[in-house]
Amino acid sequence: MEHISPRGGLGTGLPSAYLSAGTSSFTDFLRVQAPELMPGGTGGKPMTVDARFEPRQDVPHGTTIVAVAFAGGVLIAGDRRATQGHIIAQRDVEKVYVTDDYSSVGIAGTAGLAIEMVKLYTVELQHYEKIEGVALSLDGKANKLSSMVRGNLDVALAGLAVLPLFVGFDLVENRGRIVSYDITGGRSEERAGFHAIGSGSLYARSSLKKLYEPGADRDTAVRAAVEALWDAADDDSATGGPDLARRIFPSIVTITAEDGAVRVPEDEAGAVAEAVVAGRAERPRG
Amino acid sequence: MTMPLYASPEQLMRDRSEYARKGIARGRSVIALKYVDGVVFVAENPSSTLHKVSEIHDRIGFAAAGRYSEYESLRRGGIRHVDLWGYSYDRRDVSARQLANVYAQTLGTIFTEQVKPMEVELCVAEVGDTAATDQLYRLTYDGSIVDEPQFLVMGGHTDPIVTFVKESYVEGQTLRAAVGLALRALTSATSNGAAADPPLGRLEVAVLDRTRPRRAFRRVEGAALDALLPVSETAPDADEESPAKPVEDVQLPPDDAGA
Question: What is the pTM (predicted TM-score) of this model?
């Protein structure tokens, strides 16, 4: 028999924990069945913490993420840079992820842990949907992410914080929603219609404050997001601007009721980025 | 001192098989068959929420006949298993063959070690990039596993259905043809006793469609299902519609003028 179960030995069937009615949460299941696979790798056990809470300079960090609501949907966009201290660790890192048909998460902070967290979160949403036959409500999804951020608190206090920004389309309320988090897992809905996180968030948010038009269409919102990322890259060394030479452009995901969560094609993102760069060449302050 | 009751192993296995078969035969039938874009499941199911057909993973579907509580727990176990597998390695490393083996082990262990066998019959299907790589596995209550080349029928009174599908099955048929075939096959089974009563309205239909980008599984419900059902069943409606169309055409010009 070729099968080797990850939990049992050779040739055994599913353990009884797999067959129980139990939980519909993949994270809870993973914590019991394979704690070594949990993000952070401590299996939920507290690790020794030197409570200095400064970002560690020796691991890659992701930087700026912006989210903008528009008429009939919401979008999330991120720059592509990961930094390690003063060094650019990666130029084309992906920090915006489609997590299910109607939600998307952008991440700032320790890249390795953040990507692992989003991976687990994506499996979590789909796992619930498959087991229960219906998807989680938008608030359910946002709360789940909140508990995952809280689970990372010990690691965050050791200087390896992960902060997500959640956007989703609420099919009940029929609008796009933006939810932000702090490292303790506290979630707050951004009702202003836009938000930004990460090292360049201050500049991006200030930019969006001027550029954001409530009820604008999708293309206007995409343009505003790319402008905000440009402003962040302009003043924050850890945020990468559009790289026209290497053809690296911000990654953008839009979510609408009709199309669900879809990635904006590279060509379109490139065209918008080029337009923004050309615009700034004429008027540097936007 | 009491004498322990003795039963020969053959007798024990025979009794358990008979028990399981009887349990499964009480249920309604499920058909899984290959069509041009993947695999279609057609089940007779009076409930619209207690599903017999379900998604297991991106390219893998599951169908079952028999006792609901038992195959539901196997379904959950399977989803947990493949999600854990895909999480610890990669989503592409999950395969129906591997899942079918785990199910076979589980069912086999329960059949030999427990007093009561599981009264279920399972189907695990996977769509590949081409029709040649589609897989269809049948698992029975005793843990035996069969790789079916074209179709499989599970549940009660399957013989007439199997005969019907075997006679009418063609390679590379469209989804509409496949659903039509399955529906006629299910009807052929019920027509023995009572008059032909196609189980419309009690159908659970789902497909594994290789042309879908990420998750191949899709339930076919409501209007999408009505569109697939054979035209002959809805012939009166079609007749009503055809005279209606010219009327629409006549009514169009005033609308245009108004606008």
Answer: 0.87
